[in-house]
Amino acid sequence: MEIRIGQLIFQVVNFAILLFLLNKFLYRPILRILEERAARIKEGLEAAEKSIAEKAKLEEKKKKMLVDAEKQSNVILQQAQDRAKKVEKEIVAQAKKEAEKLVQKEQRLLLAKIDQDRSKLQRQVADLVVDTTQAVLEKSLTQKEQKAIINRQIAYIKNVKIN
Amino acid sequence: MPQAVSDLKKLGQRFLQFIQTKKPEDFGLIVRVESVIPLTKDQQSKLIKILSQKLKTKVTIENQVNKAIIGGIRIKYQDKLIDVSIKTKLDRLEESLLNE
């Protein structure tokens, strides 16, 4: 087998050109595409991770907000209940006070009426007693008795201090 | 008869002159005593004696019959009143009955 130097050099040059062309137009673009794809995948993964983290963060925030809102609503509810109780107490106290006032007023009116009736009755009894006694005395006292009364009163005057 | 009238006039004039010469204090303190029946002389003299001693002055009594006092006596002098009449006692009784 005879080696032809010229042909060999030609083949080597061809192979080198082929390598050069393959390298330039095939391997490098493919590698670049593969790298880009890997980078995109990496970015996608990172974005996905970031998105998951964001979502988790948002979920956490949402939970926290829900807890806060619940706490706040509980506080508002408690305040409303306290206020309602306070208002209820005030209304009951006011009603009680009004009722007491009413009862006191009625009692006063009743006592005044009783007092008025008693005074009226007293006056009637007093008038009856005095008028009857007066009428009896006017008719029944004789001259002798009148004289005796005057004598007793003169004796009484003798014993009292006058000026 | 005309003589008698003339004498009576003179007597009246002398009495008036006598009265005019007297001062009010010569008659002493005038005490009005109201009673249902007229006071007897004995009662009047007793009252004069008692009142003169107590008031330390001469006392003259004017007796007025007042049926309204029912019984007893009511004595008034100056601005004073000693009321022991039955009417007043009844009034006090009425008052006490009303105040019970």
Structural summary, described in words:
The complex is a heterodimer of chains A (163) and B (100). The mean pLDDT of chain A is 92. Chain A has one domain. Chain A has helices spanning 5-140, 143-159. Chain A is mainly α and 163 residues long. Chain B is of the alpha+beta class. Chain B is built from three helices and four strands, in the order H-E-H-E-E-E-H. In chain B, helix 2 (41-55) links the parallel strand 1 and strand 2 (59-65). The longest helix of chain B has 20 residues, at 2-21. Chain B is elongated and about 70 Å long. Classes of the chains: A mainly alpha (163), B alpha+beta (100). Chains A and B meet through helix 1 and helix 2 of A and helix 2 and helix 3 of B.
Keywords:
heterodimer, A: 163 residues, mainly alpha, B: 100 residues, alpha+beta, four-stranded mixed beta sheet, 3 helices, 49% helix
How far apart lie the N and C ends of chain B?
A: 71 Å
Biggest beta-sheet profile of chain A = none
Helical segment count of chain B: 3
Count of DSSP-assigned helices of chain A = 2
Give the class of chain A from helix and strand content and strand pairing: mainly alpha
The strands making up the biggest β-sheet of chain B line up spatially as 2-1-3-4
Radius of gyration of chain B: 19 Å
Indicate the radius of gyration of chain A in whole angstroms. 64 Å
Low-confidence stretches of chain A: none
Order of helices and strands of chain B: HEHEEEH
Largest interface: A-B, 28 and 30 residues
The general outline of chain B is: elongated
Record the SSE blueprint.
The complex is a heterodimer of chains A (163) and B (100).
Chain A: H1 5-140, H2 143-159
Chain B: H1 2-21, E1 29-35, H2 41-55, E2 59-65, E3 73-77, E4 80-83, H3 86-99
Parallel strand pairs in B: 1-2
Antiparallel strand pairs in B: 1-3, 3-4
Summarize the structure.
The complex is a heterodimer of chains A (163) and B (100). Chain A has 2 helices and no strands. With 163 residues, chain A is mostly helical.
